[in-house]
Amino acid sequence: MPTIAAFTATLLVLVHSSPVHAAGCEKDTDCKGDRICENSACVSPAAAAPPTETAPASTEATEDSPTPETNPNADTAAPTVPKDWWKQASREAEAPVLQAIFNSMPKPIIRKSGGKLVYQRAVPLVVADIHDTTARWGGKAQIGVHFLGISKVHTTTTLEDITVETGGIPYCPINCARITDIQLTDNTIALFYDGEIKQWAGKVSDNLAGYTRKLGKQYRTMCSIPTLYSHAPSNSWMDPEEVKKVNESAVTEIKRYCGID
């Protein structure tokens, strides 16, 4: 009999504890239907508190919405201010911009047997200060002459591209205060000034200065820049539209730098 009594007591405890467990829950699977477990109680999803919105942990940009850190144009230098063209900082900022335009000049090619031969070409060298060059005119011998400069000669006798250290190379000075016009003819950019160049850019005679090889007073007020020198044979080909695009871009940039309409 004691055994039967103990079994009955145990059964009563289990029977009476069962409803308590059914009234509460520990996980969603303890609830019937689509109800979920919230605070140990089964409730419908609509009654559950909405989750709190949080900002995404990652700020990685997508292709459709680039951030300043990933935007390919973010590292592009800000355009110089035309009124500050004469300042050293403006000249140093403009030189690589203009050089990049000249460097985009296509290379001459010759198509041969289904392929093509690519040849070199020389383009102008842009310097932030012609006073830092070794040219006789507008170089270190000319005190106080500080202008952005574009080389008139782009290659040496051994067909190597010139550098700032290459001696005897004449440069056209970009003196925005004196430029009256900029013209493009074929592959030559001509800068026209309001007076003779040697009056403000050096006292070297015209022929040694290198900015003109023509006789006549009118040529003393202009400086011409060939935009390329081809090392390829005469039967080579360059895309004329691409060449034209580079030439026009260079003229447009010089005018923007100087504030010329």
In short:
The chain has 261 residues and is α+β, with helices and mostly antiparallel strands. The chain contains 5 helices and 12 strands.
- The ordered H/E elements are HEEHEEEEEEEEHHEEH
Helix content: 10-25%
Widest sheet: strand ordering: 6-7-8
The backbone outline, from C-alpha atoms, is: elongated
Low-confidence stretches: 3-22, 47-75, 203-210
Please count the beta strands (DSSP E, at least 2 residues each): 12
- Span from first to last CA? 117 Å
Structural class: alpha+beta
Note down, in words, how this protein is organized.
This protein is an alpha+beta fold. Helices cover 25% and strands 18% of the residues. The chain has two domains: 2-47, no CATH class; 82-258, no CATH class. It is built from five helices and twelve strands. The strands form five sheets. It has a three-stranded antiparallel sheet with strand order 6-7-8, covered by helices on one side. A three-stranded antiparallel sheet has the order 9-10-11, with helices on one face. Strands 1-2 form a two-stranded antiparallel sheet.
Secondary structure elements and pairings:
Layout: H1 2-23, E1 36-38, E2 41-43, H2 88-103, E3 109-112, E4 115-118, E5 121-122, E6 126-127, E7 148-151, E8 171-174, E9 179-185, E10 188-193, H3 198-201, H4 206-209, E11 222-226, E12 229-230, H5 240-258
Antiparallel strand pairs: 1-2, 3-4, 5-12, 6-7, 7-8, 9-10, 10-11
Helix pairs in contact: 2-5
Features:
three-stranded antiparallel beta sheet; about 25% helix; 2 domains; about 260 residues; alpha+beta; 5 helices
